[in-house]
Amino acid sequence: MTPPLASGSGRPFRRVAVAVVAALALTATAACSSSGDDEQDGSDRTVRVGAVGAGPATADPHGSLFNESDWVRLSAIYDPLVGVDEDGAPAPALAESWEVDDTASEWTFTLRDDAQFSDGSPVTSADVMYSLGRIDELADQNGARLGSVDMGASSAPDEHTVVLATSVPDAELLTTLAGSSFIVPDGTESFDEPVGSGPFVVSAQDESAASLESNPDWWGGEPASPGLEIRAFADPRTMNEAVTSGEIDLALGVEPAAAATAEDNDDLQVIRRPAGSTTPLLMRLDEPPFDEPGVREAVKLAIDREALVENVYLGFGQEGADLPQPNDPSAPNDLEPPARDVETAEQALAEAGYPDGVDITLHTSAAYPSMVPTATLVAEQLAEAGIRVEIAEESPDTYWTETYGQVPFSVGYYSQMPYPVWVRQTALSDSAFNETQWRRPDFDSAFEEAMATTDTDQRREQLADLQREMAAEGGVVAWGHGDGLTVASSDVDGLSKGPGFARLKLTDVAISS
Amino acid sequence: MTSSTVVAPARAPRRRAAGAALLFARLVGWTILVAVVAVVLVHILVSLLPTDAATVIAGPGADPERVERLRGELGLDDPVVVQIVQWLGAAARGDVGTSLVSGRPVLGLLGERSVVTAAIVIPAWLLAVLLGTVAVLLVAVRATPRTRLVQTVAGTLCGIPDAIIATVLVLVLATWLGLVPPVSLTSPGTSILEEPVLLVLPIAALVLPASAWLVRTLRGPAEDIAARRYVTEARQRGRGVISVSLGHVLPPLLPALAQSAAMLAGGIIAGSVVVEQIVALPGLGGLLAQAVAARDVPVVQAVAVIVATVTAAGLACADAMCSRLERQW
Question: Other C-beta atoms within 10 Å of A96: how many?
C-alpha cells in the first residue's frame, strides 16, 4: 500500500468545487419542481385523478375490465345505455326512458335525441345495437356483462328506439345494464383513438395516463372542471404518496391504512362510500361439518363482527348481517347483524353433534389485503367457542381457480354488483360456480318468480325474503363491509359519495379556488 | 468468449478488416443465440406458472367453460413447443405478436416504455461506472481511514435490496427535503425526457447499489495493481493520486473494468424493474411486472428479448475489448 501523501493546496479547492456543483444541482432541481407547482395553481384547472391499475391498460370498453383506472377513464369517455344516480340505482343516460312488458322479458328503450359522439355524429339505435352486440360477443371476457339479454331476438325499430328481449323474464335488467353498457359508434373496431359521447374527450393518452378535456356539448351539461388527467398506479402505496404530495388531486380506492393517515392531514379529505367490498367466510353446505345447520349457526354467532370491522377495516366499514350485496335496493335493511353469543354458539355446536368442538381449516390468500387479517381474527374468535381453526394461506395466483369455493371453509371477496346478478352467478342450482353449494329448488323458483314481477316494490320484497332466508340458513358469512375510500386534497369539490358505479361520476368534481 | 481466437493484430489492413468482420459476425451471432435461448426459457417459465392468461381474463369464479373457450381463442391450448416455434417463426418475419390481455401490438406497447427505461438505465450505468471507478481508484491508491470508509459503505450498500434503497431515497430526497417529486409522473402524451427532474430519483436509486457493487468487485484487482512496484515508486517520487490513478493503475485495470461494467448493465436493467415500480415510472419494468402477473406471454417474451440482447451484446463487446486490452497490458 502506498503511504498517504498530503495533496497540499489542491484540497480546499476541491471542496469548494464540490460544494458549488452540489448547490447548483440542488437549486436547479428545486427550481424545476417549484415552477411545476406554479403552473398548477388557480381554481379553473384540470383535476388529476389516480386509481389503481395493476394490469395492462385496456382500451376496449367491452372487454375484460379489472383495473379501476380503466373503469374511471372509460366511464368518462363513453356513455352507458342506462346510467346510475347518486345512490347507484339505475337512471337515464343515453336511454332517456324505458318500458317493460307484463312478462318482464321485453324492454323498450327510447334514446335521447341530443346525444352526439365526439366526431360530431349523433348517437342512434344502430350504435346501441352494435355496442350491445359486441358486449354479447365478448361475453367470455367480460363475465357476461349483458346478463339475460338475447341479442338475436332484440331489434331497433327506428333511430331512437331499441327493443331488448331477454332469454328469461328479467325485471332487474336495468341494474345489470346500469353503468357498464358503454355505447360506441357503429362499426368501431379500434379503440386506440376513442370516440365516445360521454362528458369528457381524450386529448392525449399513453400507457399509464390519459388527458381528457370536458365536452361542452355533453347532453348532461358541461362538466364542472375543464378536464381530467386519469392515471393508473400499479401500487396503491405509490398512489398514496402522489395524493399526499399533491401530485394528484384525488385517489380512488385507497386502503384503510392510507385513509386513516389522511384523516390526520389537514390538506386531505376522506370520502367514505358504504360497502365498497366484502370479505365473507364461505362454508360449503355439502361438506362436514357445515352440512349441519347448527355448525353454520355457531360460526355466525361466535365471530365478533364489531372487532372484525375495527381491525380489518380500521373502522372504515360497517358490520354485516350476512347479506352479500347490502347496497342493492332490495337488501332487507331491517336485518340486524347477529350479536356475538359464544354460549349459544357452543350449545348449537353441541346439538349439531360436536359437543367437544370441531377442528377445521380456513383457506385464505393475500389476493386482497383484507383477506388474511380476516382469517387470523376469525380463527381467534371461533376458538373461544370450541371451533379450532387452522389457517391455510394459499398463493394469490391460484387461489380463485383452485381453492376458494372448492374447500369446505374459505375466505371470499365480493365487489359490488346487483343482487340478482350475484344470485345468478353463485346461488342457483344451475349456477356455473356455486361457492357454498346452496342448491334449493324452492329458492330457484322464488327467484324466477321475483324476476318476472314487474312491480318494483313487490319484487324487492320478494328478493328481500330470499336474502333473509340465505342469511339465516346459508353458508355465506358476510360479517362486515369495507367502505369504498377516496382520498382527495381538501380543495376538491363535488366528489360523489354514492356506492357502486356512482363512484365513477366525475362530472361535478372541480378544484375550488 | 473469453478464450479468444481473434486474429492477432497484423500489419496487413486487409487481414485486420477481415478479423473485424469476423469478430462482428460472432458478436451478432452470439447475441441472437442468447436472445433465442432467453425467449424459449421465458416462455417455458411462464407456462410453468400456475394459471394462464385465459384464467386471468375471465376473472375469479368464472365459468370453466368460458375459460376453456378463451384458451382456445388465445391459442393457449396448443402445446408449449408449438407455441414457441410459432412465435419464433413470426418474430423472424418481424411480427412479435399482440398482447393476450389488451389485444394491442406488442411493438406499440414497447415504444415509449423503452425510451423511459433507456432514459434511466443509460445515465445510471454511465454514472455508476464513473463513480465506481473513481471510488475504487481512490481506495486502492490512497488507503486512509477515510477511503476505507468508502469501502465499508459500498459493502453495506451492496447488501441492501434495491427496493429499500429506492424507498429510503424517496423518503429523504422527496418527503423530507422536498427536492424532487416522490413519484415520477409525466403528463399523458409528453415524454419523460421533457421533465428530466423526474429522472433524478430513479437514477440515484440505481446508481448507488451499482457503483457500490463495482467498488466491491474491482477493489481486489485495483489494489493488486496499486501494490505493483512501478506504482509505489511513482507515488514515492511524488506523483499525485490522480496522476498515478489515471496513468498507472487505471490502464491495467481496464479489462476487468470492461467486464464488470458489462455485467453491471444487466444488473441495472434488472434493478430498474423494481425502481420503476416504486416511483411509478411507466417503463419496461412496469410492463414486465404487469405482463408476468397477467401471464401475457408475448409481452414477457418481447421484454426478455430486449434485456437479453442488451446484456449479451454488452458482455460480448466487453469480452472483445478485454482480449485486445489484455494483449496490450
Answer: 15
Query: Residues 209-238, chain B: which have Cβ within 8 Å of A?
Result: 223, 226-227, 231-232, 235-236, 238
Q: Is B179 within 8 Å of A33 when comparing Cβ atoms?
A: yes
pLDDT of A511 higher than 70:
yes
| Mean pLDDT of all residues in A177-192 | 94
* CB half-sphere exposure, A38, CA atoms < 13 A: 6
pLDDT of amino acid A22: 43
Q: Residue B260 and residue B252: Cα distance in Å, rounded?
A: 14
Shortest distance, CA B200 to any CA of chain A (angstroms)? 9
State the pLDDT at residue A225: 94
Query: Which residues does chain B have within 8 Å of residue A432's beta carbon, measured at their own beta carbons?
Result: 62-66
Low-confidence ranges of chain B (pLDDT < 50): 1-10
Chain centre to alpha carbon of residue B171: 25
Q: Judge whether B106 and B298 are in contact, CB under 8 Å.
A: yes
pLDDT value for A43? 52
In the predicted model, what is the mean pLDDT of chain A?
89
Least confident of A200-209, A341-350, A375-384: A200-209
Which residues on chain B are in Cβ contact (under 8 Å) with A404? 60-61
Is it the case that residue A130 has pLDDT exceeding 80? yes
Q: What is the CATH number of the domain that holds A294?
A: 3.10.105.10
| Judgement on whether residues A416 and A444 belong to the same structural domain of the protein | yes
Give the C-alpha distances (Å, rounded to integers) separating A307 from A312, A386, B130: 8, 19, 56
CA distance B296 to B141: 51
Q: Does residue A426 contact residue A435 with C-beta atoms inside 8 Å? A: yes
- Chain A residue with the nearest C-alpha to that of B276: A234
Same domain? A468 vs A389: yes
Q: What is the gyration radius of the CA atoms in chain A, in angstroms?
A: 27
CB contacts under 8 A, A 219-238 vs B, are 229, 231, 233-235, 238
Q: What is the pLDDT of residue B7?
A: 45
Domain residues for the domain of A40 are 16-76+190-273+484-511
> Contact B278/B205 with Cβ under 8 angstroms?
yes
- Residue B26's CB is within 10 A of a number of other CB atoms, namely 17
Nearest to A284 by CA among A405, A378, A403, A432: A405
Instruction: Tell me, yes or no, whether A281 and A361 share the same domain.
Output: yes
What's the pLDDT score for residue B329?
Answer: 56
Stretch (H or E) spanning A230: strand A227-233
Q: Shortest CB distance from B290 goes to which of A56, A64, A242?
A: A56
Segment B236-262, tens digit of pLDDT: 888 888 888 888 888 888 888 988 998
pLDDT exceeds cutoff 70 at A20: no
The CA distance from A343 to A341, in Å, is: 6
Put simply, the answer to whether B63 touches A1 (Cβ < 8 Å) is no
If asked whether residues A32 and A118 sit together in one domain, one would say: no
